[in-house]
Amino acid sequence: MKRNRLKGSIIKWAVLVVILIFLLFPLFWVLITSFKTNMEAYKYPPTFIPQEPTVESYISLFTENNEFFIYYKNNFIVAGSCAVLTTLIAVMAGYALSRFHFRWNQWIVAAFTSAQMFPIISRLISLYKLLGDVNLINTRVGLILAVMAAQIPFTIMLMSSFYDGIPLELEEAATVDGAGRLQILFRVVAPLVKPGMLAVGIYSFLLSWDDYLHASTLIQTDSLRTLSVGIALRYLGELSYDWSLINTISIVGTLPMVILFFFFQKYMVKGLVAGAVKG
Length: 279
What we know:
The chain is mainly alpha-helical. It is 75% helix and 0% strand.
């Protein structure tokens, strides 16, 4: 019996290790390539450990490529603004969807759900026309609004599931004490759904940080481009690539996401799980 349990445990851990290696290998390859010379990066067969490790690409990135930090700053502005505004809208709209029940509730939920079925590219033509009509093409504001529009339906439904788990008796007691609806929302209910707010904020920041289609379609000025579009247009040449520099940029560009996920993963998972349990 013990032997069977030991065998099953070994098999389970072996499978997990294989999956982990499979998932982390691309990140490992990007990391080691950033420490290679460009000639070694093109070498065949490829080397799994740099023969002559160098940090020239990192030095070049921080001393010669000022455009990278412009894209980096734009990414923080767009992703941070989207995270804050999306969370604020989801907090209020999710509360309304959870507490105010009327005849169109099911249709609103169905509309939010169906919005997730369509790929982003199918909405870009109409979105471009709408933003063009209000002169928001090639602006950070227009890009932020476009990215938010793709996230808001899901985040509202996510926040609504958190509110559904809060007993109505708490709000009734606050009403008896003379609290208004906004006071109840921000002073009584909101502190109880902080895990959900954090999950929504992280979700929005992650999606905004990696956005490419909106940024490449709505932004034409180089100084307003975000990181993914800037890298694609400036550092990926037509005939040859500086793979060492590109992988260095990828590592530096990924660091905020790694740090964010490392410190907040347990809160995000806790928030998503808590939102799935009602009553």
